């Protein structure tokens, strides 16, 4: 594997992992819309853990969701997927760093290092998929309620955290794909090794076997 590809893939995966850590505590997963409102006295915004409100004077109050089981199913699933994304990203970073050729950890076994780097790429892919599913599912529920004309409650729009999450997923998927596509766990040598005798003449293994079996003689020599 090209060391440059390893470094680029590790950088993309690490950057995606950091952005996941920024996305999770961000408060602006969804923000109350001002569409159709003449006067807006307060802005409500939520994430996976709490709901906050800011009035026109700039004072804001936040409260955590009191019960996990009382939350909507997509919020619970998004929580689990984002936590799984952080764990997968951590495993991917460790496996990729050990599998890099410039890293002395793990010895000089390039085959084993290639497998570790490929494993790190798989973890980065899982990280990106978990983040993408979580963020997209959350955004789908927001848009579904927003375009429902019969919904009586507060409608929301997509917050900045969702866009950060999408960028994080794309970076992680790109890093994992680079590692998996460029990783070579082994090499098969199909060409025969040359043979050099004592007087300096070079023969291939095929020519050497022919000389031993006498297959180079003409058929007339046996008559």
From TrEMBL:
Superkingdom of source: Eukaryota
GO cellular component, one term: plasma membrane
Stored PROSITE patterns: CLAUDIN
Keyword terms, alphabetized: Cell junction, Cell membrane, Membrane, Tight junction, Transmembrane, Transmembrane helix
A Pfam short name: PMP22_Claudin
Residues annotated as transmembrane: 7-24, 80-100, 121-140, 160-183
One Gene Ontology term from the biological process aspect of the record: tube formation
Predominant localisation class: other
Coiled coil (residue ranges): none
InterPro entries in UniProt: Claudin (IPR006187), Claudin_CS (IPR017974), PMP22/EMP/MP20/Claudin (IPR004031)
Recorded topology in the membrane: Multi-pass membrane protein
Sample GO molecular function, one term: structural molecule activity
Location within or outside the cell: Cell junction, Tight junction; Cell membrane
Family per record: Belongs to the claudin family.
Role: Claudins function as major constituents of the tight junction complexes that regulate the permeability of epithelia.
Database matches in PANTHER family: CLAUDIN
The protein, known as: Claudin
Organism of derivation: Paramormyrops kingsleyae
């Amino acid at each position: 594997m090209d060391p440059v590809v390893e470094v680029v893939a590790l950088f993309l995966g690490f950057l995606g992992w950091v952005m996941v850590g920024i996305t999770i505590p961000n408060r602006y997963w969804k923000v109350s819309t001002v569409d159709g409102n003449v006067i807006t006295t307060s802005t409500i915004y939520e994430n996976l853990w709490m709901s906050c409100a800011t009035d026109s004077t700039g004072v804001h109050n936040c409260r955590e969701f009191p019960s996990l089981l009382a939350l909507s199913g997509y919020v619970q699933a998004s929580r689990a997927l984002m936590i799984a994304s952080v764990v997968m990203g951590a495993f991917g970073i460790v496996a990729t760093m050990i599998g890099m050729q410039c890293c002395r950890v793990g010895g000089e076994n390039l085959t084993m290092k290639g497998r570790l780097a490929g494993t790190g790429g798989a973890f980065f892919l899982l990280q990106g998929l978990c983040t993408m599913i979580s963020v997209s599912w959350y955004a789908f529920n927001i848009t579904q309620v927003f375009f429902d004309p019969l919904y009586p409650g507060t409608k929301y729009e997509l917050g900045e955290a969702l866009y950060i999450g999408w960028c994080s997923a794309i970076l992680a998927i790109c890093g994992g794909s680079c590692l998996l596509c460029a990783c070579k766990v082994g090499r098969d040598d199909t060409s025969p090794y040359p043979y050099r005798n004592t007087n300096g003449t070079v023969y291939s293994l095929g020519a050497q076997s022919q000389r031993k079996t006498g297959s180079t003689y003409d058929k007339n020599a046996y008559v």
